[in-house]
Specification:
The protein is an alpha/beta fold. Helix content is 46%, strand content 13%. The chain has 39 helices and 25 strands. The strands form six sheets. The protein has a seven-stranded parallel beta sheet with strand order 10-11-9-12-17-8-18, with helices on both faces. The protein has a seven-stranded parallel beta sheet with strand order 21-22-20-23-24-19-25, with helices on both faces. A four-stranded antiparallel beta sheet has the order 13-16-15-14. Strand 1 and strand 2 form a beta hairpin. Helix 10 (210-219) crosses helix 11 and helix 18 crosses helix 19 (432-439). The radius of gyration is 29 Å and the shape is globular. The structure holds iron/sulfur cluster. Residues 311-313, 369, 374-376, 379, 381-382, 385, 387-388 line the site of iron/sulfur cluster.
């Protein structure tokens, strides 16, 4: 039994506190007197309910114990308070390394580490040199009121400051307005100059990396002056892993930016590459400190969609009562982070990915500007706003690092034409098609339409918060301009036809309200009547094509179309009024007011386009299909629970709008990747670049990987694990992971099978000292899961699509990739249409080879890496083997033989320490 003193439900300052650690291998409790012992799950749950225990990642411990209500003194919460915006891998080892404590040798030593960690973090708060002291006392006063479990322990250690301290809003710097850049000079990059720039960046000579030099010189062609309007230089460059493509294109890009005074955009698909680029580019573009120019301005800027950044106004609202309970504590910890954050990026930036999951709340989304409700200069924090700062910094930057979706959105509806990207390098170019597919899609669904209603009307039925509708955001315009005021009132009235709170339930119960909900009700009924995807029993989403629809549904579509048009009309009129006011500004319209109207005009344009796309989709339901599009009806579900209903439209070839919107306006575009073409065939890569839409012949070049795949890797195709036998599949995974001693990445095509396999093997592996983590099982975000995997060479990770090419783990931590089966594409309605247009089974084969190539690409990341790629599929067609790099040995064999080879190969590999040495 533990001994502690409790005051009003809190904890006294008496240390050490009892601690609990639970893994798949068991549970360990340590009391205040320093004795650790193994316990059963039941005893651990009782102990945690009885006493606030020290824990590391409470939701994870709760899931290990199978007791969701578990709470305690979570060291990760304390860490985020004491060291805001500081990276840590949220494991015992990660914490120990971050705090310079001894790394525990096994599970049984973890509770002692938890106590040491608590002591170290609390001691830091009392230390005079605590770097994050500013603002801590003020935040703590709020956290005491919120009864945060750590507050009583911190109160005695954090002294009140002698004078009022600066905290979040006063601590953040204001951004500066920057002068508009003149248009870039026309320059031609000389081959020698590019090679010299590359040598400067890599510190090596041309002889040592001839492939990279040739690649850099090829990339320079994308920066040449354009000869014809609407026809950019388009370069497709395949570069095998290890070519050094990042610095390869940064060399000409930085040289061009320097000589021309223009901005280059480098676009990525994954956060892992964005992180790497942030790091590498600062060397290429800086002449005074990392990423900064001599005048202190930023040469390199990372730019993301606005929904990634913290909105300070939303945060203020959350801090002032908008959030309650645990979410209010999260808001305080986010405020601590914001005061120390580099750029306010909440998704993949320096906000720890694990922080939101500790609170099991969706609060984070409410702290960003998801719906474009920004009031710009009308916001008291406008001059400190992270989003506005990043927009301004990117306007004057030499290099903007962005993602594919943002580049496309910016080209399609950027706020400022002068900021549209004109020189673009799409790294991970094989994902441009996918990004274009979602960017140019239309979805007339319940969740999309309710968002629009809220954007127009604002909060209804006493909902809390500062969110405001159009009339509140444009109150001054309405009082000044009668026509504008009338348009706002008409829009508000028309928006009432859109679904409101509770729509999903009403639609599900057959009691829809208003024309759009009635349409959604009919869509849902049709989907349930017609779906034959096999998803009904599995709990997956359901869909049916938009063809041969019944008369009543088509009538409802007509009524919905009318309702949408009635909303679009006043929004267009309002946009026209704003244009007129901006053209002839009244006296009261100062600079900030103008900025706000420009922001509103931009947001309106985007809504009007969305409404027009929805109307076009509805318009065709009764008539013949438009061959440019694929339309279908869907009920989105997760584990049999419905979460959205609606109609969807995708371009059959999304590269057509991409070509119009992105390519036509650009001067130079490069698509590069290790997996652009299919074997030696460029055809599909050219089609998927958008070139045919502009009758453009792209420049094609290919660079072989310098790796020796024949000796560094092998592909093992296991032929005796029966398809559909989950027990056999799980057994194969467990034995392979044991044979390799961890370091395995397991890739699945279905979440259900992933969970089934994980459930069967995680405990067994943990008892052997081999931790197993899994997407869709562990309550941890994907980025953090990869960090954990990278940090522990004995850990293994199971996951689905996002891990297939979002993982860059060089070295010993990743030495085995296991695919459960051939990654066939999901036979959806969209896929069926593209397959038909793209050559039938040859189309499928191209997709599968690309997926295999991407997955294989995770294995060998450097010349020192060794590893095996296992596919558990007897029926692995030989025509897919060209997915692997030339020279890679491929063997078909039994599981026992594969285990033998994996164990043999691992025993010959250098350990992490040896490779580091
Ligand atoms: S300017 Fe807009 S996005 Fe920025 S803090 Fe204010 S409301 Fe939020």
């Amino acid at each position: 039994m533990f001994h502690f003193r409790s005051i009003a439900g809190g904890v006294t300052a008496a240390l050490p506190l009892p601690a609990l650690h639970a893994s798949h291998g068991g549970c360990w409790l340590r009391d205040g007197a320093g004795t650790t012992r193994e316990s059963g799950k039941g005893e651990a749950i009782v102990a945690a309910a009885d006493t606030p225990l020290l824990l590391l990642n409470a939701p994870l411990v709760a899931s290990r114990l199978g007791y969701p209500d578990l709470s305690g003194l979570d060291l990760l919460e304390l860490f985020s308070f004491v060291h805001p915006a500081q990276f840590v891998v949220p494991t015992p080892k990660g914490l120990a390394q971050a705090l310079d404590l001894p790394v525990p040798g096994g599970d049984e030593h973890v509770p002692a580490l938890l106590q040491q960690t608590a002591e170290a973090l609390l001691a830091q708060c009392a230390a005079p040199d605590w770097p994050a002291r500013e603002g801590a006392w003020t935040a703590l006063q709020s956290l005491i009121r919120l009864r945060w479990s750590w507050a009583p322990l911190l109160t005695v250690r954090i002294a009140a400051p002698a004078k009022a301290e600066r905290w979040l809003f006063s601590r953040l710097p204001e951004w500066e307005e920057v002068a508009e850049r003149p248009q870039p000079a026309q320059v031609v990059l000389q081959r020698e100059a590019v090679a010299e720039q590359l040598a400067r960046l890599t510190g090596s000579t041309a002889e040592s990396r001839p492939g990279q030099v040739a690649y850099a010189q090829e990339a320079a062609n994308a920066f040449a002056p354009r000869s014809r309007e609407g026809l950019p230089h388009l370069l497709l460059a395949q570069a095998g892993t290890g070519t050094g493509k990042t610095l390869g294109y940064l060399a000409p890009a930085s040289l061009w930016a320097q000589l021309s005074g223009g901005t280059v955009w480098v676009s990525t698909f994954t956060r892992a590459l964005q992180r790497q680029l942030r790091h590498e580019s600062r060397r290429a573009f800086s002449d005074s400190g990392p990423g900064r120019r001599a005048d202190g301005s930023q040469a390199v800027v990372v730019r993301k969609g606005r929904e990634n950044y913290l909105c300070l106004l939303n945060l203020e609202d959350a801090l002032q009562g908008g959030f309650t309970g645990r979410a209010a504590i999260l808001a305080q910890l986010v405020a601590r982070w914001a005061a120390y954050s580099q750029d306010g990026d909440m998704i993949g930036g320096d906000l720890p990915g694990w922080l939101p999951t500790l609170f099991r709340a969706r609060g984070i989304r409410a702290l960003t500007d998801q719906r474009g409700e920004c009031v710009y200069a009308g916001c008291p924090h406008y001059r400190k706003c992270f989003i506005e700062r990043s927009v301004r910094a990117s306007a004057g930057a030499d290099l903007v690092i962005a993602n594919h979706a943002l580049v496309m959105v910016n080209a399609a509806r950027g706020r400022d034409a002068g900021q549209r990207p004109t020189r673009i390098v799409f790294d991970e170019g094989h994902h441009v098609f996918e990004a274009a597919d979602s960017t140019f899609a239309a979805a007339l669904t319940g969740s999309e339409t309710i968002e629009l209603r809220r954007w127009v009307i604002g909060p209804e039925r006493g909902s809390k918060g500062r969110r405001r509708g159009l009339s509140a955001r444009l109150a001054d315009l309405a009082s000044y301009d009668e026509a504008g005021g009338k348009a706002i009132a008409a829009a508000r009235h028309a928006a009432e036809a859109l679904p409101g709170d509770g729509w999903l339930q009403r639609v599900g119960e057959g009691m829809p309200s208003g024309p759009i909900e009635m349409l959604l009700g009919a869509v849902r009924a049709t989907v349930y009547a017609r779906d034959e995807s096999g998803g009904q029993d599995a709990g997956y989403g359901l869909e049916t094509e938009a063809a041969q629809l019944d008369g009543p549904l088509i009538e409802l579509a007509g009524a919905a179309q009318t309702a949408l048009a009635e909303l679009r009309g006043p929004l267009i009129r309002l946009g026209v009024r704003i244009e007129a006011i901006l053209a002839e500004p009244p006296d009261w319209l100062d600079g900030p007011g103008r900025a706000r109207l420009e922001g509103a005009r931009h947001a309106l344009g985007w809504r009007v386009d969305t409404l027009a796309a929805w109307e076009a989709l509805l318009d065709r339901l009764g008539g013949p299909a438009d061959p440019s599009f694929v339309d279908w009806l869907a009920v989105d579900r997760a584990e049999a629970r419905e979460f959205d209903v609606g109609l969807h439209r995708r371009w059959l070839d999304p590269m057509q709008p991409f070509a119009k919107v992105v390519l036509e306006g650009a001067h130079g575009v490069m698509l590069t990747s290790a997996t652009l073409k299919d074997g030696d065939d460029w055809d599909s890569a050219v089609v998927r670049s958008g070139a045919p839409a502009l009758q453009l012949a792209p420049r094609l070049s290919s660079f072989e990987s310098p790796f020796d795949y024949a000796s560094q890797a092998e592909v093992l195709i296991v032929t005796d694990v029966p398809k559909g036998d989950v027990a056999a599949l799980a057994g194969a995974y467990a034995r392979l992971i044991e044979a390799s001693g961890g370091g395995a990445l397991g890739l699945f095509t279905a979440i259900r099978r992933l969970r089934a396999v994980h459930g069967r093997i995680a405990d067994r592996l943990a008892r052997g000292g081999l931790p197993l983590y899994a997407q869709h099982v562990d309550p941890i975000d994907t980025g953090t899961l990869v960090d954990i995997f990278r940090d522990d060479p004995r850990a293994s990770l199971l996951g689905t699509d996002a891990l297939r090419d979002g993982v860059d783990v060089p070295g010993h931590s990743l030495r085995l990739v296991v695919m459960e089966q051939v990654p066939w594409p999901k036979p959806s309605i969209l896929h069926r249409a593209r397959r038909l247009a793209g050559g039938g089974s040859a189309f499928d084969d191209r997709i599968i080879r690309a997926r295999l190539a991407q997955a294989f690409g995770r294995l060998i990341r450097s010349r020192q890496d060794h590893g095996q790629f296992v596919v558990l599929s007897a029926a692995f067609p030989s025509r897919l083997l060209s997915a692997f790099p030339p020279g890679t040995p491929v063997t078909r064999l039994t599981l026992d033989q594969a285990l033998h080879r994996v164990a043999g190969s691992v025993s010959q590999m250098p350990t992490q320490q040896e490779s580091d040495a």
